Amino acid sequence: MSLVGFLRVTFAVTLLVLLHFTLRPLLGWRAPIDFLVIAALLAAVRLRPGVAAVVGLLLGLAADALTPSAFGSGALALSAVAFLASWLKAVFFADNLALSLLFFFGGKWTFDLLYLVAERRVRGTELAMQLMMWSPLAATVTAFAGIVLLLVLRPVLGRSSA
């Protein structure tokens, strides 16, 4: 990745982190948009798997700073999602919005699955309800927000490189 590409991705990730900690709390939705997952996925398709995992780890630690009772769950989940996204980027090389929508949806749902299992706060039917009802709804909202942000940030990010 060139220096200009690195600066573009850094700008986009910084913008998404700011949105996550400023806009998301103001919305107060039960199924909120996860801007950190979008940031990790946008960065992961432009980075190698190891570097993407480190970016996911750092973003996860930023999210975990607000939840000390489950510290590390977000870092583990987001680093795994970023690693897998970077590894699977060859499948999503084309700038196809439908594939990007599925990519964001799958990334967010995988993040929720790993996060909820790692934090061990919810169990049984509550876990099943979260994973089968609220997580897909949050993944859908995040996927549509990711598509909108991808279209808005396209001049900044440019095309993804394989």
From TrEMBL:
<feature type="transmembrane region" description="Helical">
    <location>
        <begin position="65"/>
        <end position="85"/>
    </location>
</feature>
<feature type="transmembrane region" description="Helical">
    <location>
        <begin position="6"/>
        <end position="23"/>
    </location>
</feature>
<feature type="transmembrane region" description="Helical">
    <location>
        <begin position="92"/>
        <end position="111"/>
    </location>
</feature>
<feature type="transmembrane region" description="Helical">
    <location>
        <begin position="35"/>
        <end position="59"/>
    </location>
</feature>
<keyword id="KW-0472">Membrane</keyword>
<keyword id="KW-1133">Transmembrane helix</keyword>
<keyword id="KW-0812">Transmembrane</keyword>
<feature type="transmembrane region" description="Helical">
    <location>
        <begin position="131"/>
        <end position="153"/>
    </location>
</feature>
<protein>
    <recommendedName>
        <fullName>Rod shape-determining protein MreD</fullName>
    </recommendedName>
</protein>
